[in-house]
Specification:
By secondary structure, the protein is of the alpha/beta class. It folds into 3 domains: 97 residues, Orthogonal Bundle (Arc Repressor Mutant, subunit A); 31 residues; 158 residues, Rossmann fold, CATH 3.40.50. It has 15 helices and 8 strands. The strands form 2 sheets. Strands 5-4-6-7-8 form a 5-stranded parallel β-sheet, with helices on both faces. The protein has a 3-stranded antiparallel β-sheet with strand order 1-2-3, with helices on one face. Strand 6, helix 12 and strand 7 form a beta-alpha-beta unit. The protein is globular and about 70 Å long.
């Protein structure tokens, strides 16, 4: 016999402590416990059950309003696979599994502010008004979904690990290379242990060859996932390096393999994944690092910029 409660999953009369990692991209708060169980049990699930788990992790709001057959069809598996997956993570069946998601809907935890009227006005503004509205909608939705799924506690813990580290390696390739380098550049105005990788002429696995448990790797990639980033995360785990994984799905291999996993929404009407949420998250992470740092970091940043003014790097404005 099993039952579910917010914050706790009860198995055969014994309460097992559950945690809510910020690697879970969720539209609800109530169902965090269920989603964290799916993430924890991922490696023990069969490939077919992982299809169901991936769909639930990425579409938690669908669970509360969908039958077992509808979930099975969406995940492209048989209905009994959905039931077996629910039982494997500690529930009596699909209905028991679905209850926290239904509760979230009843409590209204799954809704976001309504901007329909404003977006309708944008759509009336010429031929490209529709595209403009779609881009605005996607950007705002991505930010909301990203930060709705991030735990302040997990963010603080990752920031403290970064500040306490010997070296921080920030890894991004493709479009995320510029995001990683921008984060590293901003951090370097007050801290010296940040390194953007891969370095010119090098590879990520070579760049972290001598890193160990005193170091941190911040890795980011969105679908289609870059192999060199996945390999670097796997190697980092072998070497005891703490990993901060940033990706577009809680089922992403670099999120599941991270000490601190964070999911950023990257949907967009354009061809390439959106970087809006990634940049916003990195800025927030850096602000937490600075907040966790020693008081002298403020003096360091001020000295850095004072020196730039003295060297004439900035165009001085007339007073």
């Amino acid at each position: 016999m099993s039952a579910t409660r917010f914050g706790t999953v009860v198995f055969a009369g014994q309460a097992k402590r559950s945690f809510v990692p910020s690697s879970i991209m969720n539209d609800t708060n109530v169902s965090n416990t269920v989603l964290s169980r799916l993430s924890d049990e991922w490696d023990d699930l069969t490939p077919e059950a992982q299809k169901v788990a991936r769909y639930v992790l990425e579409n938690p709001r669908d669970v509360g309003v969908s039958t077992v057959r509808e979930i099975a069809e969406a995940a492209q598996v048989k209905p009994n696979t959905v039931v077996r997956m629910a039982r494997q993570v500690g529930f009596e069946g699909y209905e028991d599994f679905r209850e926290p998601f239904r509760d979230a809907i009843r409590r209204g935890d799954a809704s976001f502010p309504d901007r329909a009227r404003w977006l309708q006005d944008i759509r009336r503004q010429g031929e490209l008004g529709g595209l403009y509205a779609d881009m605005v909608t996607a950007a705002l939705r991505n930010l909301e979904e990203t930060f709705a799924g991030i735990s302040e506690e997990q963010l603080r813990a990752s920031a403290e690990a970064i500040w306490a580290s010997r070296n921080v390696y920030t890894l991004g390739v493709g479009v995320n290379n510029s995001n990683a380098r921008n984060f590293t550049y901003l951090a370097s105005t007050g801290m010296v242990q940040f390194h953007a990788i891969p370095r010119p002429g090098s590879t990520p696995i070579d760049d972290i060859a001598f890193a160990d448990g005193r170091d941190v790797l911040i890795a980011m990639t969105c679908r289609p996932y870059r192999r060199e980033v996945i390999e670097a995360v796997a190697l980092a785990r072998e070497q005891g390096i703490k990993v901060v994984g940033i990706s577009d799905s809680p089922a992403s291999p670099i999120v599941r393999g991270a000490d601190f996993g964070f999911v950023v929404a990257a949907d967009t009407p354009q061809f390439f994944p959106s970087s809006v949420s990634t940049i916003a998250f990195l800025e927030t992470l850096l602000s937490f690092v600075i907040a966790s740092a020693s008081p002298e970091i403020v003096e360091r940043v001020e000295t850095f910029h004072k020196r730039r003014h003295e060297l004439g790097i900035y165009q001085e404005e007339a007073i």
